[in-house]
């Protein structure tokens, strides 16, 4: 009778772990690529599956690593979650390619979930993550970009490449912004400038520096982006602007000015993408 009871608890724990890892896998594979913060928040949200009241007593789940109690099970599933976040981040920033990511994620999950393992008994999520570290850096891929923009009524908002940063159709002025490359190869940097009400054109600024103002009710009217560094000639930066009464302007690139000057038109949003140059 006790053995049957243990078997029932075993199945319950296996099901909990399986549902948890299935949720993680679904998030990572269907929603990737994600930004670093999105990787973390998406995977962390799946941790709620662990908040189930199960008695902490000796169990064996038939996986490669067999936890002796619920606390150890929780610790092991936390290792899987942490490793999944880090794998997602590596893939998102181009440190591992698609094939390596798919294989390593599968190995990570199979190293913990009961069933036929893809990795040996001695391997763990830490070992799989170490394997990811040995993968060649895919530094030919365009880097991601993270933005912080200060927008009328909204304050600071976060943004990323290939998406509008700011608002469209809400008649809200952008007052300033900053940008930073994520996963950029060595020798590649981003600079930007803006034209702000009352101060005119800024100098070209380095990543992380704020262009414009906060809390002064001064609009940005236009901007520009350019790549710098030894590898700048390998990539193009493309961007477009959404401005007051003019709507979305045509795409500009590599330092060209986007927006207006001296026409009292607010910049409301911008969209930036970085692409590898076609040298064929």
Write out key terms for the chains shown.
280 residues, five-stranded antiparallel beta sheet, 14 strands, 31% helix
Task: Please write out the topology.
Blueprint: H1 2-31, H2 36-45, H3 70-92, H4 98-110, H5 125-134, E1 144-151, E2 155-160, E3 165-166, E4 174-182, E5 189-196, E6 200-201, E7 205-206, E8 211-212, E9 220-228, E10 235-243, E11 247-248, E12 252-253, E13 258-259, E14 267-276
Antiparallel strand pairs: 1-2, 1-4, 3-14, 4-8, 5-6, 5-7, 5-9, 9-13, 10-11, 10-12, 10-14
Please sum up the structure shown.
With 280 residues, the protein is an alpha+beta fold.
Write structural notes for this entry.
With 280 residues, this protein is of the alpha+beta class. The chain contains five helices and 14 strands. It has helices at residues 2-31, 36-45, 70-92, 98-110, 125-134; strands at residues 144-151, 155-160, 165-166, 174-182, 189-196, 200-201, 205-206, 211-212, 220-228, 235-243, 247-248, 252-253, 258-259, 267-276. Strands 3, 10, 11, 12 and 14 form a five-stranded antiparallel beta sheet that branches.
């Amino acid at each position: 009778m006790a053995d049957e009871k243990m078997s029932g608890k075993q199945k319950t724990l296996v099901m909990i772990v399986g549902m948890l890892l299935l949720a993680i896998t679904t998030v990572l594979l269907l929603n990737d690529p994600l930004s670093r913060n999105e990787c973390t928040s998406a995977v962390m949200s799946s941790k709620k599956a662990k908040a189930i009241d199960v008695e902490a007593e000796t169990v064996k789940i038939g996986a490669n690593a067999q936890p002796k109690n619920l606390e150890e099970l929780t610790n092991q599933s936390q290792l899987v979650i942490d490793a999944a976040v880090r794998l997602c981040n590596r893939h998102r920033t181009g440190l591992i390619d698609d094939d390596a990511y798919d294989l390593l994620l599968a190995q990570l999950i199979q190293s913990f979930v009961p069933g036929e393992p893809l990795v040996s008994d001695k391997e763990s999520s830490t070992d799989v993550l170490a394997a990811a570290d040995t993968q060649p850096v895919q530094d030919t891929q365009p880097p991601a970009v993270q933005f912080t923009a200060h927008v009328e009524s909204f304050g600071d908002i976060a943004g990323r490449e290939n998406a509008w940063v700011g608002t469209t159709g809400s008649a809200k002025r952008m007052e300033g912004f900053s940008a930073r490359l994520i996963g950029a190869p060595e020798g590649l940097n981003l600079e930007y400038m803006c034209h702000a009400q009352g101060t005119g054109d800024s100098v070209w600024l380095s990543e992380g520096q704020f262009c414009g103002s906060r809390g002064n009710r001064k609009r940005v009217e236009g901007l520009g982006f350019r790549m710098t560094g030894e590898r700048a000639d390998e990539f193009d930066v493309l961007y477009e602007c959404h401005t007051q009464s003019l709507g979305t302007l045509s795409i500009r690139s590599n330092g060209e000015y986007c927006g207006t000057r001296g026409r009292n038109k607010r910049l409301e949003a911008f969209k930036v993408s970085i692409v590898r140059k076609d040298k064929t």
